[in-house]
Automatic annotation (TrEMBL):
Listed CDD domains: ATase
Gene3D superfamilies: Methylated DNA-protein cysteine methyltransferase domain, Winged helix-like DNA-binding domain superfamily/Winged helix DNA-binding domain
One of the record's GO molecular function terms: methylated-DNA-[protein]-cysteine S-methyltransferase activity
InterPro entries attached to this UniProt entry: MethylDNA_cys_MeTrfase_AS (IPR001497), MethylDNA_cys_MeTrfase_DNA-bd (IPR014048), MethylDNA_cys_MeTrfase_DNAb (IPR036217), MethylG_MeTrfase_N (IPR008332), MGMT (IPR023546), MGMT_N_sf (IPR036631), WH-like_DNA-bd_sf (IPR036388)
Chief localization: cytoplasm
Protein role: Involved in the cellular defense against the biological effects of O6-methylguanine (O6-MeG) and O4-methylthymine (O4-MeT) in DNA. Repairs the methylated nucleobase in DNA by stoichiometrically transferring the methyl group to a cysteine residue in the enzyme. This is a suicide reaction: the enzyme is irreversibly inactivated.
Protein name: Methylated-DNA--protein-cysteine methyltransferase
Subcellular location: Cytoplasm
Catalytic reaction list: a 6-O-methyl-2'-deoxyguanosine in DNA + L-cysteinyl-[protein] = S-methyl-L-cysteinyl-[protein] + a 2'-deoxyguanosine in DNA; a 4-O-methyl-thymidine in DNA + L-cysteinyl-[protein] = a thymidine in DNA + S-methyl-L-cysteinyl-[protein]
Pfam families associated with the record: DNA_binding_1, Methyltransf_1N
Keyword Magnesium attached: no
Keyword Isomerase: no
Length: 200
């Protein structure tokens, strides 16, 4: 995962714990819960950390909209995003996640079929897990085929809380599944495509 050299960050409290936000000149490029797997800890803390800019307009908007969403006052986000730090395949997966509406869910297998990579379910799952903008790019809306909760970098209790807040039901077989818009993308050579397996 690559980040713009001019990235800045801020922190905001939420009912699910503190959140780190990051923004590049192009838009919001990161949202991680404290303790979340795959967060770029080297850039969030320590001598090489990104500068803190609590007045940055994108970070302020993201914090405000996140609070509204978590309070049940918002179902969609209106923010510029910068997802360019991922591989072409990862970016295609993250763009597809943006097509899953609030209150709906999908499976890893369905997501791989939308991307026209039906055998790349494990690669899709890996890309979902590496999503750098949690909640706003809604990786929490991807469930197992049976509707069961599966791995979430921010922790399964947070995933369950988010789905319940949206009115989705994470119990097996009870989730509201909805098709997501087809994403048209050209993939460059990507080693993650080697991680193929059975449908989720």
């Amino acid at each position: 995962m690559q980040f713009h050299p001019s990235t800045v960050q801020s922190r905001t409290p939420t009912p699910l714990g503190d959140v780190r936000l990051a923004a590049s000149p192009q838009g919001l490029s990161g949202l991680w819960f404290d303790g979340q797997r795959h967060q770029p800890s080297h850039w969030l803390d320590g001598p090489a950390a990104w500068p803190v800019d609590d007045a940055h307009p994108v970070l302020r908007q993201a914090a405000a909209q996140l609070q509204e969403y978590l309070a049940g006052q918002r179902t969609r986000f209106d923010l510029p995003l910068d997802l360019s730090g991922g591989t072409p395949f990862q970016q295609a997966v993250w763009q597809a996640l943006l097509g899953i509406a609030c209150g709906a869910t999908t499976s890893y297998g369905a997501l791989s079929r939308v991307l026209e990579r039906p055998l790349a379910v494990r690669a899709v799952g890996a890309a979902v897990g590496r999503n750098p903008v949690s909640v706003i790019v809604p990786c929490h809306r991807v469930l197992g085929t049976s509707g069961s909760l599966t791995g979430y970098a921010g922790g399964l209790p947070r995933k369950e809380w988010l789905l319940q807040r949206e009115g989705a039901t994470p119990q097996p077989g009870a989730g509201r599944s909805a098709p997501i818009p087809r994403t048209l993308a050209l993939f460059a050579d990507d080693e993650s495509l080697l991680l193929t397996g059975a449908a989720a």
